[in-house]
Design brief:
The chain is built from two helices and seven strands; from the N terminus they run αββββββαβ. With 110 residues, it is of the alpha+beta class. The strands form two sheets. Strands 6-5-4-3-7 form a five-stranded antiparallel beta sheet. Strands 1-2 form a two-stranded parallel ribbon. The protein folds into two domains: 41 residues, no CATH class; 54 residues.
Length: 110
């Protein structure tokens, strides 16, 4: 028994309609994935309350937003107040520490 014999409205879809349907499905899938997988450099909570994924690791290249200088993460540690500190190294070899809040605000992975 065919669909038209069962009383189901059947018509041919145009190429434009098919492409639009595919786009809608793809956009919906991307939104769902974005809500499930949100990475933050410091592992903060995502917008839906789930814990973020901490992607800070030794060797990670990060760029300062304003200066656009590139630094390498050489380590992490907790200071006396138990705040997370990130050790960054310049291309010249100088090392300095940045607290997690400043790191999240002023640096991005490269």
């Amino acid at each position: 028994m065919s669909a038209s014999e069962e009383g189901i409205d059947v018509r041919d879809l145009s190429e434009v309609e098919i492409i639009e349907m595919i786009r809608q499905e793809y956009d919906q899938k991307l939104r769902r994935l974005a809500s499930e997988i949100t990475t933050h450099l410091g592992g903060k909570k995502t917008f839906n309350g789930e814990p973020g994924i901490n992607v800070i690791a030794r060797g990670l290249k990060v760029r300062h937003h304003k200066s656009r200088y590139l630094y390498t993460v050489t380590g992490m540690f907790r200071d006396a107040d138990q705040k997370l500190m990130i050790k960054l190294q310049t291309p010249e070899g100088d090392v300095f520490d940045v607290n997690e809040e400043e790191f999240e605000k002023n640096y991005e992975s490269d």
